[in-house]
Write a structure and sequence with these properties.
Blueprint lengths: L2 H25 L11 E4 L4 E8 L1 H4 L10 H13 L2 E8 L5 H7 L11 E5 L2 H5 L4 H18 L5 E5 L14 H21 L4 E4 L19 H17 L17
Parallel strand pairs: 2-3, 2-4, 4-5, 5-6
Antiparallel strand pairs: 1-3
Length: 255
Amino acid sequence: MPMWWKRALFWSLMPLAAPQGLLARRRAPRFPAAAGPAEGRVGAGPGLRLLAIGDSIIEGVGCRTLEEAFAGQFARHLARATGCAVHWRALGRTGACAAGIREGLLPKVAPGSFELAVVSVGVNDVSSLKRSARFRADLAALLDGLVERAAPGGLVVLCGLPRMETFPLLPQPLRFLAGLRAETFDAIGAALARARAGVHHEPTAYVPAPHEFAPDGYHPNAATQGLWAGRLVERLMAQGRLAPPPRACEGAVAE
């Protein structure tokens, strides 16, 4: 479906689904951010600095600790795949849109402080009914800011938006419309990544079953976050974006 049709269909049906969204938000259980340190080290060998930045996925909602959430599990998969000691840092904020991540979290990232960044963003822009032009501008500014702060030769990986039409919390037709909007925003993210050196968009192909979500029906549970993290590392390795061992990890991100 062409993107302009998706936009037209979304806004034409939104008046029917908006009350559902308000009700779902009131009824949804609220889970805290994951406990534990927001940074750590896994593996042995030369060091690779990993930054995970973004929304509630990076803050570990749906998991007990950050080590078992997406950031910690991605670091473990990355260490095994590359043979590097991965120094990871999770910088997340529940409910943050692209603008909130850029304004509230990006200033906490020092220049040259990472070789690899993974970014989770977009779901809150969908749920807050951001216009596509606003999302494009906010995401472009966030990606540019991350590229500027990466170490020489660093890589920024933009995670594709999840299939929001599968979220158990959302009733129909809200679920359908959220999925439609997520497709539009994901296409925007992919286009922005293609236009920037040092940025790669990787679609989130895995679709969790209902039982693979946390009890809130909105966030993936710890097992699902680990599976997603592992598949993302596999994809990056298969595409040659991460150099396999025995190459030294300083510079383990392929140019």
